[in-house]
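Design job #97: recover the sequence.
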C-alpha cells in the first residue's frame, strides 16, 4: 500500500518509525525539507499541506492518507475521498474538529458534555458578554499549543480577547486534565488506551509532564470511556482520536477538545503499552486487527522543550545522566534548531510504582535541558 502523511513533524516521524514494521510505502508532504519526518519516509514532497492543488496532486496516486496535524486542505481530501482514496480520519471528521466553533457545536448537538459556550465574532462582541466570565476564549481556527487560548477572568482581561471568530466558553474548575486515545477501525470496532493525566506549564501553556494510567476513581473512568466511545461513534470516522477532557471539582467530566490523529498524550505508548498509538494507526490503515492497548508498566512522559533564552543549534545537556536511568527512553525529534518553548523531544520513564515514577520524572526534568550551543 502507498500511504501518505500530511505534515512532517515529530508525530509523523514516530508514525514512520512504526511503519517500518509493515509492508507499506510511505509518502510525506511538508513545507520544510528538513522536518523531523523528512528522512524516514520513502518519498518526501516539499509542499504546502493547506493548498488544494498541492494536497490533491500529492494524494492522487495514493491508496490512503492520514494526517499528523489538522490544518490541512480538507476540500482536497474530500475530492480524493470521492475518487477512492481512503482518508484517516475522514475529511468530515477533520472539518468538525479543525474549527473550534464547529467542534463545540458538534459536542452540543451530540450531547457530549463540554463546557457551555457562546460564539463571538470580534473583541467588541466579547465585551458584551462579561456576565459569562470567568471564561476561556478560543480562536476558531489557527490556534495551537496554547496560542489560540486566553483565559478571561474579568473585564481587565478583555484586551487579551481574540478579534476573530472564536468560542467563549465557561471556565471549568479543573481538578485534573486528562486525555484518552480511542482507536476505531473501518468496521466500527474500538480500542481504548488507559487515561493519561497531565500537568501543564502555566507560563508556556504547554503540556510538560504526564502520567499514565491516570489515578482516577473507577466511576469517573467509566464516564470518561463512555464519552470517548460516544464521540468516536458520532464522528463516524475510522482513525485515532485523542480526547482531552477536564475532571472538575465535582468529578464531572467535560470534553476540552479532540485531536483526530496520533497525539502528544500517547508518546509513552511506544514503550509502555503493548501496541503503541502509532502501530495502532497503521493497523487501522492497513486493515489489520486492532492491537492490545493494555499498559506494560505505568509511565511518565517528560517533554523536552527549548529553554528560555536559548535560540540556535540545539544541544542536549544531561543526556548521558538520563540515559543511565533504568527504563528511561529518550526520543529526540531531529530538529537542529532550538528556540524557547519549541518541542524538541520527549523522555518516557516507566516504573511499577507511582512514587518512584514521579521521582524519576522530576529527576529527568531537572537533568535534561535543551540549550543552544555557542557555535
Ligand atoms: P491548545 O489546543 O492550544 O492546547 P486547549 O484548548 O487545550 O488549547 O487549552 C489550553 C489550556 O487552557 C488547557 O490545557 C487548560 O489548562 C486551559 N483551558 C482550556 N479550556 C478551559 C476551560 N473551559 N476551563 C478552564 N481551563 C481551560
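Job complete. Output follows.
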Amino acid at each position: 500500500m502507498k500511504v501518505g502523511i500530511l505534515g512532517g513533524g515529530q508525530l509523523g516521524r514516530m508514525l514512520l518509525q512504526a511503519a517500518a514494521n509493515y509492508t507499506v510505502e510511505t509518502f510525506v508532504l511538508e513545507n520544510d525539507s528538513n522536518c523531523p519526518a523528512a528522512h524516514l519516509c520513502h518519498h518526501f514532497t516539499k509542499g504546502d499541506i493547506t493548498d488544494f492543488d498541492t494536497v490533491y496532486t500529492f494524494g492522487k496516486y495514493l491508496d490512503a492518507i492520514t494526517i499528523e496535524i489538522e490544518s490541512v486542505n480538507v476540500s482536497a481530501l474530500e475530492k480524493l475521498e470521492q475518487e477512492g482514496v481512503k482518508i484517516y480520519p475522514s475529511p468530515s471528521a477533520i472539518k468538525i474538529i479543525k474549527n473550534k466553533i464547529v467542534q463545540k457545536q458538534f459536542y452540543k448537538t451530540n450531547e457530549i458534555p463540554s463546557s457551555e459556550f457562546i460564539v463571538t465574532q470580534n473583541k467588541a462582541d466579547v465585551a458584551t458578554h462579561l456576565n459569562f466570565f470567568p471564561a476561556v476564549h478560543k480562536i476558531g481556527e489557527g490556534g495551537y499549543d496554547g496560542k489560540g487560548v486566553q483565559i478571561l477572568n474579568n473585564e481587565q482581561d478583555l484586551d487579551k480577547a481574540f478579534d476573530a471568530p472564536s468560542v467563549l466558553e465557561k471556565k471549568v474548575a479543573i481538578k485534573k486534565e486528562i486525555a484518552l486515545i480511542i482507536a476505531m477501525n473501518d468496521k466500527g470496532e474500538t480500542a481504548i488506551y488507559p487515561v493519561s493525566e497531565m500537568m501543564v506549564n502555566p507560563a508556556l501553556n504547554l503540556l510538560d509532564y504526564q502520567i499514565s494510567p491516570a489515578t482516577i476513581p473507577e466511576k469517573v473512568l467509566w464516564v470518561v470511556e463512555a464519552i470517548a466511545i460516544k464521540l468516536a461513534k458520532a464522528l463516524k470516522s475510522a482513525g485515532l482520536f485523542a480526547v482531552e477532557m477536564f475532571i472538575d471539582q465535582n468529578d464531572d467530566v467535560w470534553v476540552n477538545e479532540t485531536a483526530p490523529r496520533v497525539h502528544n498524550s500517547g508518546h509513552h505508548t511506544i514503550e509502555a503499552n503493548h501496541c503503541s498509538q502509532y502501530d495502532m494507526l497503521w493497523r487501522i490503515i492497513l486493515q489489520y486487527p486492532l492491537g492490545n492497548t493494555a499498559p506494560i508498566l505505568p509511565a511518565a512522559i517528560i517533554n523536552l522543550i527549548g529553554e528560555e533564552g536559548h535560540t540556535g543549534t540545539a544541544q542536549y545537556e544531561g543526556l548521558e545522566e538520563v540515559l543511565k536511568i533504568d527504563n528511561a527512553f529518550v526520543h529526540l525529534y531531529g530538529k537542529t534548531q532550538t528556540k524557547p518553548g519549541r518541542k524538541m523531544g520527549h523522555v518516557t520513564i516507566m516504573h511499577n510504582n507511582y512514587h518512584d515514577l514521579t521521582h524519576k520524572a522530576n529527576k529527568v526534568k531537572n537533568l535534561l535541558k535543551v540549550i543552544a550551543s555557542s557555535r
